[in-house]
Structure formats: structure tokens, C-alpha cells
Amino acid sequence: xxxxxxxxxxxxxxxxxxxxxxxxxxxxxxxxxxxxxxxxxxxxxxxxxxxxxxxxxxxxxxxxxxxxxxxxxxxxxxxxxxxxxxxxxxxxxxxxxxxxxxxxxxxxxxxxxxxxxxxxxxxxxxxxxxxxxxxxxxxxxxxxxxxxxxxxxxxxxxxxxxxxxxxxxxxxxxxxxxxxxxxxxxxxxxxxxxxxxxxxxxxxxxxxxxxxxxxxxxxxxxxxxxxxxxxxxxxxxxxxxxxxxxxxxxxxxxxxxxxxxxxxxxxxxxxxxxxxxxxxxxxxxxxxxxxxxxxxxxxxxxxxxxxxxxxx
Length: 312
Prior knowledge:
312 residues, eight-stranded mixed beta sheet
């Protein structure tokens, strides 16, 4: 089958990125959102991503280091070729549609990418309702960061056409796409998703079996959790923890800068899945409390203008 019409369910940090990158690569893209207020929040993110693409491409004219793998596999670009890429950005921006209707979103979909909150109590009702409207042809994937597709397969109405496709943040720069099936996933649909990942300028990383956290988050989540524990137990503040990591390893960003990109709401949802988080005196409970305090203040990360750091 050919994938042309793509729906991204959720317009959060990664949902908005996935939608924009997919439209940039020429696919018809619809973003499904829960409410009109969600549409407004998603539009702000889409506006920001458009500005990032355009400003980064303009910088590529004078700074080769600004090049992003998600834009094109050609590294030696003329100014005219970069201007053509900028035209693609404008076309992508104008082409994306948004809706709160399950029926309208799913009507002629070839692929639906679920990128809603990392919460089974939200994912299961979403899948059950969506199943009423999806055409037989539709492949369904989840961008879940830590949850296994086998957990939700029975709720989708199409377990054989359901698998995971997980992206890294800033996908225009960090262009990885982890592809992970479950026992009921048919190989031909797995292969279609691998092909789709390549067509949106991602590098498909194929997992041979289910793994909580896939490859990336199996390494990243323990790293971020260790940093959160240092902060929650008052060992050091986020700035000092970040500085330690950056100076000692040469990494461009410490864990709390990464958490601001990931989004504190996602980090919080991951923490509270641990039963220990129910005990306010445990390390997990302390982490949850500190994240919740920032979330309640609207300091949810870079897209909100402030998380652990302030952003212009």
C-alpha cells in the first residue's frame, strides 16, 4: 500500500514535530486534537517549529554546522537549494489541517500516529473510539515513550496493523525513528512503517522484540531519573547538575535542559507510573512533587517558555 494521508493524534511537543516533519516531506497531514483549546495550543507549537525550520535553513547558508539531517540527506547545498527547502516549509505550514472529529480525521487515513499523553487511562479510550472510524486499510502506530504496544493492541480493533514508531525530540535534527512491533504485528505492516520513516527523512531503527523504553529511552530515562533524584534529594540544584554533566562529558546539554525539551508533563507521567511515587517521602514521590509544582505554575518546558530554565 502507499501511505499518503497521515493523521497525528495529539499536538504536544512531539506530536507537533511529527506532523510538521511529515507535511514538510510532502504527505497530507491532519492533526487530531481533543478540544478547540488544544487546537490553539498546537497551532502555537506549529508556528514555533516553522520559525525554527526557516531560521535554521537560513543559517545553513553561512554556517555548515547548522545543517539538520531531517531536512535533506544532501549536505553541500547551494543558496538556491536552501531557498527551495524554505518553500517546502511554507507549503507544509499551509497544508496542515486540524480537527477534533474522530470521523473526519480517520476517514481516509493511511497511517495514524498516536502521540497523546503517556497515560493508559487516556490511550485506551482513544483507541476504542478511534476504532469505530478507521478504514480497513489504516495502519496505527504509537509514539509512546515507555509503554509497550502489546498493552494496547486489543483495544485498537486491528492488532495486526498496530505497532510502535517512536521519535526523538527535535526530529529535524535528531532524525531517529524506532520501529517496534508486538507478537501480533504482521511483518508487511512493520515494513510499511519502516519505509514511511525513511520517506520522512528519519533513520528507522528496527527493534527485534518489545522493550520498555525501546533503545533510546532504555538509556535516557535512567539518566534523567538519576539527575531528578539528585535534585529531589537536595544534593544539588538543576543548574549545577547540568554544569557537572556538560563539563565532565562535553555534552551540549545536561539532563534538566533535556527535560525542558521533553516536557515536564511527560516526565511527570513517567514518574507517577512507579508505585513508589505514591509515597511522598520516597525519592520517586519527591521527584513527582517537584515536577508537579512546576507544572502547576505553567513551567512545563521550552514550549511554555519556561521549565527549569527560561526561554525567549
